[in-house]
Specification:
Blueprint: H1 5-23, E1 27-32, E2 36-38, E3 41-43, E4 46-55, E5 58-65, E6 68-78, E7 87-91, E8 96-100, E9 106-109, E10 116-120
């Protein structure tokens, strides 16, 4: 049986599309307007790509902006409504406590939630 080049290309395209669809589900973009702190590390103002991997309700989260990479552990929670924008909940000191993922019901919870302020994109 001969396999045509076209069939191979179509198959590769479908595989690539499926792979990017699955990989693309656990990421968002966060614009930081005032310095924040994640896992004891300062995040300066800028735009960060946030990605995470999950095992059950645990998530390993990566904030990345250029060469800056900050990793943190979080608890994954599901909200009852879809968030309109990606936003964070932080303490008065700028420590990130929650990340709400825009367009989804995903909440990433970092530590306890006392003295919270809200900052959106």
């Amino acid at each position: 049986m001969k396999i045509s080049t076209r069939s191979v290309l179509i198959s590769l395209f479908i595989i690539a599309a499926l792979a990017s669809a699955f990989a693309g589900g656990n990421n968002t973009t966060l614009t930081v307007n005032t310095p924040l702190q994640v896992n004891g590390t300062k995040l300066d103002s800028g735009t960060y790509k946030v990605t995470w991997t999950t095992v059950g309700d645990k998530a390993e989260v990566l904030f990345k902006n250029g060469k800056t990479e900050v990793k943190a552990s979080a608890k994954l929670e599901d909200a009852k409504t879809t968030y309109p924008n990606t936003a964070i909940m932080r303490t008065n000191e700028g420590v990130v406590k929650q990340l709400w993922v825009g367009g989804k019901t995903t909440t990433l919870v970092f530590g306890e939630t006392e003295n919270l302020n809200h900052e959106g994109e």
